Amino acid sequence: MLVDQFNPLEGKMLSILDKDGNVKDKKLVPKIEDEKLIEIYKTMLLTRVADIKALQYQRQGRMLTYAPNQGQEATQVGSIAASEEKDWLVPAFRELGAWLYKGVPLEQIFLYWYGNESGSDFPENVKMLPISVPIASQLNHAVGIGMATNIKGEDEVTLAYVGDGGTSQGEFSEALNFAGVFNTPTVFIISNNQFAISVPRKFQTKAKTLAQKSIGFGIPGIQVDGNDVLAVYAATKEAVDRARKGEGPTLIETVTYRLGPHTTSDDPKIYREDVEVEEWKEKDPLIRFRKYLIDKNLWDEEKDEKQKEEFENIVNSNFKKVEESGKISLEKIFKYNYEEMTPELIEQYEEYKNYIEKGVK
Asked: What is the 3-state secondary structure (H, E, C) of 81-119?
């Protein structure tokens, strides 16, 4: 078991690929079919292209506040790729790669950041909770899904994401405690990108790792190289398999880095040095995984350039649809949340409908 082999208390971190894409230990390489390896890489590349374009759209005044993902693609895609379609995804707000791999249409993601309510109305086959901006509150929701899964006797697993800053919130501890006590099939993934807005990781906790926080709740924990997609996949696959067999939750800390700002309202130059950013750019998750695939004769630079160009066209096309989408109906805002509207929602809907009809400003 990887969680036994890589004990965070002993300073051991799971890493399979070095920064140049070379395999450190062949015994640790997870079994992934070639087609899936390419799918993972393409999703990471689409995430990078869409992320860069989204930042440009926002700077041009064409989109609202946006949370960039650059540098965290391996953590996002490597983890969700280790799950199955029937499993649940409970995100925070910086999991673009996971959303895309899970099957959320890019147009819909752009709608969300555009401020359109339709951006939260996911396709029925995509088992994902709405994007959650309140820090760590989504973790208890994930545990609730896990408790329901156990009660219903199903074999679904829930993957829940949180940033390093979120581990300082009470909801983090509450969620891990309940998950452990009720043995829920929950995989907690900490995207440790080194900063909670401007607050560095060192001010979040005195613990040497975030992964070791699992010990206090009686569940397994492991720290992995979050820029190594194979390491993230391997750790998550093991955790998902354990959860599906009824062996309970796991805490995974992925050590990665946010290359861009926290959001488009943030200026990271105020609180971190450019030299630090440049050091992390050398650990770029796309570069190392691309080199790995090229060495396996599954990819090449020519394919890469063509794929980038194709993705740029796809991204621009999707955002054009968003800009042409127009306003949505009032009913849409209220009626998609539940199979049947609750009495409270009906009351709110009727109240606001009357407010609009009266033309009150």
From this structure: CCCCCCCEEECCCCCHHHHHHHCCCHHHHHHHHHCCHHH
Query: What angle do helix axes 34-59 and 229-244 make, rounded to 10 degrees?
Result: 110
The tokens of 215 are what?
């010990």
Based on the fold, state whether residues 173 and 208 are members of the same structural domain: yes
The domain in which residue 360 lies consists of 329-361
Distance, in Å, from the CA atom of 350 to the CA atom of 87, rounded to the nearest integer, reads 36
Confidence band, pLDDT 50/70/90 cuts, at residue 34: very high
Specify whether 323 is located in the same domain as 344. no
Phi, psi of 187 (to 5 degrees): -110, 115
The answer to whether residue 256 scores a pLDDT higher than 90 is yes
What is the amino acid identity at position 300? Answer: D
Number of domains in the chain: 2
The set of catalytic residues is: 258, 262, 271
pLDDT at 306: 98
Q: What is the pTM of this model?
A: 0.95
The residue-averaged pLDDT of 16-30 equals 97
